[in-house]
């Protein structure tokens, strides 16, 4: 699975891996972090497979129009 994209909702975050809401575990390569993704938010992980493990080479936060709209409203009150 070189260069495959995995999209999911973050359920758990650990120093060496993350777990998505469907139970998928994705291990993090050195230098890759999911600290910028809040639990419950959608993410896209660019992954590869090595020795049977799914490894994230990059993690990107997906836009969430509802949360962004709520943040905008609360900032303007």
In short:
This protein is mainly beta.
Description of the molecule:
- The chain is mainly beta and 77 residues long.
- The protein has a single domain (4-75), classed as OB fold (Dihydrolipoamide Acetyltransferase, E2P) (Beta Barrel).
- It contains one helix and five strands, in the order βββββα.
- It has one helix spanning 65-75, and strands at residues 4-13, 17-20, 25-28, 42-50, 53-61.
- Strands 1-2-3-5-4 form a five-stranded mixed barrel.
- It is elongated and about 50 Å long.
Topology diagram in text:
Blueprint: E1 4-13, E2 17-20, E3 25-28, E4 42-50, E5 53-61, H1 65-75
Parallel strand pairs: 3-5
Antiparallel strand pairs: 1-2, 1-4, 2-3, 4-5
CATH homologous superfamily label: Nucleic acid-binding proteins
Number of strands: 5
CATH architecture heading:
Beta Barrel
Output mean pLDDT.
Answer: 89
Envelope shape: elongated
What low-confidence regions span 5 or more consecutive residues with pLDDT below 50? none
CATH fold-level assignment? OB fold (Dihydrolipoamide Acetyltransferase, E2P)
CATH level 1 name:
Mainly Beta
Supply Rg. Answer: 14 Å
Count the helices. How many? Answer: 1
* H and E string: EEEEEH
Strand order of the largest sheet: 1-2-3-5-4
Largest sheet composition:
5 strands, mixed, barrel
How many distinct domains? Answer: 1
């Amino acid at each position: 699975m070189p260069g495959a994209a995995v999209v999911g909702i973050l359920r758990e975050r650990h120093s060496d891996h993350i777990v998505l809401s469907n139970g998928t575990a994705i291990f993090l390569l050195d230098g890759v972090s999911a600290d910028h993704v809040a639990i419950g938010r959608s993410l896209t992980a660019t992954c590869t497979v090595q020795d049977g493990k799914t490894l994230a080479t990059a993690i990107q936060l997906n836009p969430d129009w509802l949360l962004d709209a709520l943040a905008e409203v609360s900032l303007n009150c």
